[in-house]
């Protein structure tokens, strides 16, 4: 009998193939009292489309003018609408950079790359404030962090991991920081900030959604401001219906469980 060689697993490998069920990661970004009506409109719409596992990215003090502490009614309603498979994650602190610079900080994100240029100490302090406010608001401590505009750096991720934030993501993948593994799944999202971006995102989604559907894990990022434009609402519905036919919704926590 030939000897059986045990295969050594690389902890930094892509997770493709470990989980057999095709998965749809659907997240609602910019969950804040500042966008309250649209947040709940988005939640209702996604539920009607069959999304029973949703990752909600909460901004503790959006643009420095909408602290969760000052909006207990919003927090209670959000908690009441959470399903058993939903997950709350920390999404920055203010979602606004102190002094944006560079093409990504100024033009790509309209100055909202809050964590892009932070060092470890500054990131840690801001993350701690955000976690404390979310614990006061919801009574739970998130285990995941997503930087605004998906822009962070190695020092930020190290600080996040030290604080018990085990998952994060960027435009192209989601990461299990604690286990040093990732799932490559480019995010599909829409733009509402300007007419060219709006039309461009619709055209891109029409092409990309069927292509991405061939992947084991697909990812859709929805924003409350998307629900201010009927064309974007319709486009979100088309993508979710297409993906729901073959992929089961899951939260980031479930993907890495």
- How would you characterize the largest beta sheet? 6 strands, parallel
Structural class: alpha/beta
**What percent of the residues sit in helical stretches (DSSP H or I)?**
25-40%
The structural domain count equals 1
How far apart the termini lie comes to: 37 Å
CATH superfamily: Glycoside hydrolase/deacetylase
The CATH first-level class comes to: Alpha Beta
Q: How is the CATH topology named?
A: TIM Barrel
Average pLDDT number: 89
Q: So how many helices? A: 8
Radius of gyration: 18 Å
| Number of DSSP E strands | 9
The residue ranges in which pLDDT falls below 50 over 5 or more consecutive positions are 1-19
Cα shape: globular
Order of helix and strand elements from N to C terminus: EHEHEHHHEEEEHEHEH
The CATH architecture term is Alpha-Beta Barrel
Question: What do these coordinates show?
Answer:
This protein has a single domain, classed as Alpha-Beta Barrel (TIM Barrel). With 257 residues, the chain is of the alpha/beta class. Helices cover 37% and strands 16% of the residues. The protein contains eight helices and nine strands. The chain starts with 22 loop residues before the first strand and ends with a helix.
């Amino acid at each position: 009998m030939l000897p059986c060689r045990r295969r050594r697993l690389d902890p930094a490998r892509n997770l493709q193939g470990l989980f057999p069920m095709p998965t749809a990661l659907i997240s609602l970004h910019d969950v804040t009292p500042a966008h309250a009506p649209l947040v709940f409109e988005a939640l209702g719409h996604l539920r009607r489309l069959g999304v029973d596992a949703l990752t909600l990215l909460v901004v503790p003090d959006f643009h420095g003018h909408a602290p969760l502490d000052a909006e207990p009614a919003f927090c209670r309603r959000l908690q009441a609408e959470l399903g058993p498979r939903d997950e709350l994650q920390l999404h920055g602190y203010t979602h606004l950079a102190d002094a944006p610079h560079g093409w990504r900080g100024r033009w790509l994100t309209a100055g909202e790359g809050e964590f892009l240029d932070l060092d470890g100490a500054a990131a840690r302090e801001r993350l701690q404030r955000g976690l404390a406010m979310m614990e006061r608001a919801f009574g739970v401590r998130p285990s995941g962090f997503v930087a605004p505009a998906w822009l962070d750096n190695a020092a930020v991720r190290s600080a996040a991991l030290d604080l018990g934030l085990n998952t994060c993501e960027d435009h192209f993948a989601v990461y299990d920081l604690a286990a040093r593994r990732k799932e490559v799944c480019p995010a599909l999202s829409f733009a509402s900030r300007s007419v060219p971006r709006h039309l461009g995102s619709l055209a891109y989604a029409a092409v990309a959604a069927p292509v991405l559907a061939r992947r084991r894990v697909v990812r859709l990022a929805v924003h409350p401001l998307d629900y201010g434009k009927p064309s974007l609402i319709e486009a979100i519905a088309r993508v979710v219906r297409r993906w729901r036919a073959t992929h089961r919704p899951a939260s980031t926590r479930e993907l890495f469980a």
